């Protein structure tokens, strides 16, 4: 049998289009608190982060209480991971867009939105209780990761139009197991869209720990497969999150393309008020993370630098309590709702199916009114 001459492979289309080494995240999460790098930190930014974290913690506890009082149908608390949302939202410019998940109510509030309007979806009144264009905050997304392709689409369109806009898309570790996550990152990298993906890795997708979702060294490592940088940051270190997100936003704005950031944090509370977290995790694990609380970490830094005294602590706490009191009062008032509004903001022009459904509901409401 005659031997077949070896033929070299065709031009190496399989090879990486970019050098993967610069895309790899650091071996350990990036930190600032307690390091020498804090010497050059902006005191005003640090105090603003502190005030927002204190307000955010009170927002979480108040919203959780409202679920127990029947004023909210459900609430996914972000207690313990407030630094991810506060620091990321503060890094945005007013012209930028935020694409939140259902747990990112605090990011929307930090963006300047009315807390009652932010909670409208979770109250069950409207699909979205606010005008997304007013604050450039997309609707809270309850389906996992569906907001990510939307963020890429907006960012890509902005770039095509020449608008100086960056989209920041927030997602949890559970969302990285969805196909939308893959599609969004792939499109973003190919198009070099000005979008930043921030994964809040809080340890669990409801009851599923991260180790049962992925075998990757970290979620940030997934960035390399798409051709974008991956960054790993301590999600409870507010200044570090702000720095990493700000750098990624600047990179995207200058035409450098997308970045995937993994913020390592922890979900102190249950997945929602309907979840029993004691069935899948032990209290000693939770207690360890309580000691790594983002507010305590920042308080320690600010106190050590002489930036935080009792008056400033009291001022932040009083402002947070005033917010909570107003939120309670307004949420205790029953809203006046028109069921026909269900069809008002679905399409610019109603489809035939929507018209049929709306007329059916109108007839049922009329009949119900006549029988009372």
From TrEMBL:
GO terms for biological process: branched-chain amino acid catabolic process. Residues 54-337 form the Dehydrogenase E1 component domain. InterPro entries: Alpha-ketoacid_DH_E1_comp, DH_E1, PdhA/BkdA, THDP-binding. Transmembrane segments: none annotated. GO terms for molecular function: magnesium ion binding; oxidoreductase activity, acting on the aldehyde or oxo group of donors, disulfide as acceptor. Keywords: Oxidoreductase, Pyruvate, Thiamine pyrophosphate. Residues 1-25 are annotated as: Disordered. It comes from the Bacteria. Its cofactor is thiamine diphosphate. This is Pyruvate dehydrogenase E1 component subunit alpha. It comes from Streptomyces inusitatus. The gene is pdhA.
